[in-house]
TrEMBL record:
<feature type="transmembrane region" description="Helical">
    <location>
        <begin position="271"/>
        <end position="288"/>
    </location>
</feature>
<keyword id="KW-0472">Membrane</keyword>
<feature type="domain" description="Major facilitator superfamily (MFS) profile">
    <location>
        <begin position="1"/>
        <end position="202"/>
    </location>
</feature>
<keyword id="KW-0813">Transport</keyword>
<dbReference type="InterPro" id="IPR036259">
    <property type="entry name" value="MFS_trans_sf"/>
</dbReference>
<keyword id="KW-1003">Cell membrane</keyword>
<feature type="transmembrane region" description="Helical">
    <location>
        <begin position="300"/>
        <end position="317"/>
    </location>
</feature>
<feature type="transmembrane region" description="Helical">
    <location>
        <begin position="389"/>
        <end position="407"/>
    </location>
</feature>
<feature type="transmembrane region" description="Helical">
    <location>
        <begin position="151"/>
        <end position="173"/>
    </location>
</feature>
<feature type="transmembrane region" description="Helical">
    <location>
        <begin position="21"/>
        <end position="40"/>
    </location>
</feature>
<feature type="transmembrane region" description="Helical">
    <location>
        <begin position="111"/>
        <end position="139"/>
    </location>
</feature>
<keyword id="KW-0812">Transmembrane</keyword>
<protein>
    <submittedName>
        <fullName>Enterobactin transporter EntS</fullName>
    </submittedName>
</protein>
<feature type="transmembrane region" description="Helical">
    <location>
        <begin position="179"/>
        <end position="200"/>
    </location>
</feature>
<feature type="transmembrane region" description="Helical">
    <location>
        <begin position="236"/>
        <end position="256"/>
    </location>
</feature>
<dbReference type="Pfam" id="PF05977">
    <property type="entry name" value="MFS_3"/>
</dbReference>
<dbReference type="InterPro" id="IPR020846">
    <property type="entry name" value="MFS_dom"/>
</dbReference>
Length: 449
């Protein structure tokens, strides 16, 4: 394979104006999310001096967002996905503004208000995230799904690199209210841009029976059950969700960063920002050289290897006594996680019909969010008992064990591929690729076995 084929493929963004707009909005939103990723743990830790409390906030966010994901999955397969995205964006702007006001006006109920804002904002944000994930296959041709996933990761990391680093600087200068206000402004800009997208209704069901018609008639529970049945019977989709669970549930939660900085590295908010930004740096480097993911013949094996490497890097991070090696391991974690995210996202989009994109993506987002939240709470509890280093090493070991067990029992995942032949493109997945190029990029495939 030529060196030029390693560079991320920009074809999806070049041929689709709407996909370009989606990438820009994701970058801006994640810039604001980076501010929140630093500000919220700092605020809660300052109020409570407890990593467990920081983890409980994360758990509350995850559980509330779970309900939003489930509701969003049904709604995204029934109504205009653009409308759902805009409703969510406006609500998040209001939630971030409420965060700023709460931080600026000290009160005896400051922690309680944080919980209330999280509950309200996270639920609606979950709906919007599901709709946002569901529209991607509608804007990208099937043969460019891996390239589109790579571009999503690249632009996301641009926001995540600047977000946490700038968040720490803003907190040190303007305080927590300034960081929250900046996050609200970023999401507001994204909302204005997203309003220019055309209507994005879900695709029609391609089933030959009356299953989907019945689901529409009988209501939400039947519709949700249809998504669960698809995941349960499709062995590849099920395996992708399980390996995602290993990556997120046993991963290092950022909720431990305040305790690590205070007890191990002895720094301030700026150092928390550097730790939070380090994985994004590695992810950016990996994603800009992710052109090979569109051509790799054994996509499933590449996914397995990347998550195994991520678990090993977690262990190295937990054993690091100084900031520099810790940041190096975090960069490695971000790099291999970036590759795994590209492959996970593309495999889900490639093998899910459009009329089920909302529900399957809602299950993916729901399990990722809840597993991360539960992992944060568990790690916070373990860090309180044994210290953050032991908690992180344990998480890495569990990640490696889980992936090894899955790889040995799932031939569907080991043999999964993203390479597409023009004669075998799944029309259920490609029906809405209205703006993408259908021209296949030439180039040799990469084999992992």
């Amino acid at each position: 394979m030529r060196l030029g084929q390693l560079v991320v493929d920009v074809t999806p963004a070049r041929v689709s104006r709407d996909f370009r707009l989606l990438l820009i909005c994701r970058t801006v939103v994640l810039l604001g999310a980076g501010f929140i990723a630093v500000a919220a743990p700092v605020q809660v830790y300052r109020l409570t001096e407890s990593s467990l409390q920081v983890g409980l906030i994360s758990l509350t966010l995850g559980m509330t967002m779970l309900l939003g994901f489930i509701a969003g999955g049904v709604l995204a397969d029934r109504m205009d996905r653009r409308k759902l995205i805009l409703i969510s964006s406006v609500t998040v702007v209001l939630a971030f503004t409420a965060f700023a006001v709460n931080a600026a006006v000290p009160s005896a109920h400051e922690l309680l208000f944080i919980y209330l804002i999280v509950i309200v904002g996270a639920g609606v944000e979950g709906i919007g995230q599901t709709a946002l994930a569901a529209v991607t296959p509608a804007l990208v041709a099937p043969e460019h799904l891996a390239a589109g996933s790579g571009l999503i990761v690249v632009t996301s990391q641009l926001g995540l690199i600047a977000g946490p680093a700038l968040g720490g600087v803003i907190i040190a200068g303007a305080g927590l209210p300034g960081a929250y206000a900046a996050a609200a402004a970023a999401v507001l800009i994204s909302t204005v841009l997203l309003a220019t997208l055309p209507a994005l209704p879900p695709g029609a069901a391609d089933a030959t029976d009356d299953t989907e018609v019945e689901a529409e008639r009988e209501g939400w529970f039947v519709s949700i059950a249809e998504g669960f049945r698809f995941v349960r019977h499709d062995k590849l989709i099920r395996a992708v969700l399980i390996i995602d669970l290993c990556a997120t549930g046993f991963g290092v939660p950022q909720t431990l960063f305040p305790q690590l900085v205070a007890e191990v590295f002895h720094g301030g908010p700026e150092m928390i920002g550097l730790l939070a930004a380090a994985p994004a740096v590695g992810a950016l480097l990996a994603s800009v050289s992710s052109g090979w993911t569109s051509r790799v013949r054994r996509s499933g094996r590449a996914l397995i290897i990347s998550v195994l490497l991520m678990g090993a890097a977690y262990v190295g991070f937990g054993l690091s006594p100084h900031l520099v090696p810790a940041m190096i391991f975090l960069a490695i974690i971000g790099g291999v996680d970036s590759v795994s995210e590209i492959l996970r996202r593309a495999l889900l989009m490639r093998h899910t019909p459009d009329h089920l994109q909302g529900r399957v993506n809602s299950l993916w987002l729901a399990q990722a969010s809840t597993s991360y939240s539960l992992g944060s709470t568990t790690s916070g509890f373990a860090a309180g008992l044994f210290g953050p280093a032991v908690a992180i090493v344990g998480a890495g070991a569990l990640c490696i064990s889980g992936v090894a067990a899955l790889a040995s029992t799932s031939p569907e995942l080991r043999d999964a591929t993203l390479t597409v032949d023009e004669d075998t493109v799944d029309p259920a997945v490609s029906v809405a690729a209205v703006s993408g190029s259908t021209e296949k990029d030439p180039g040799a495939e990469v084999s992992l076995g």
